[in-house]
Amino acid sequence: MLSYNLKKGLFRNCLRHLAPITQKEDSLTNCYYSTYKRTLMKTYRKDASMSEKNGLLERKCQPCEGIGQSLSEAQCKPYLDQIEGWIVTDGKLIEKEYESKNFVSTMAFAQKIANLAEEEDHHPDLHLYYRKVHVVLTTHALGGLSENDFILAAKIDQARKNLSC
Asked: Could you tell me the pTM of the whole model?
């Protein structure tokens, strides 16, 4: 990022093109600049937190054979912070339950999960009820959790937001 003074200078140069700055107007420029800076920083913080959350959405699941070892609970924490409502069970799986309006919307959501699982080549255990879908994710080849589980969890959450259930 540009330093404060450099950005302030650039901002002043932008204003100079609009109107020459006098001593009196300099305080007004600082006022405009501080408002601009606050807006810029809010936008930057919002973008940073969104990219942190969307980081999992942008990734693809890797083939399970070449991953190595399953993740420890400490290694899972940063991933869990990026997905809401998922619970780690026995340190080997993550799970979440989604409610729907009716059976048809439950089945539509389950089909959406199935399509995502095929695209990512990482398949969850699904438990279907009349108005609920219970999703359990684990990397069976490792007998525990991998980054793939968290990637698919984030994509399932995103699919749920896009689907009106």
From this structure: 0.66
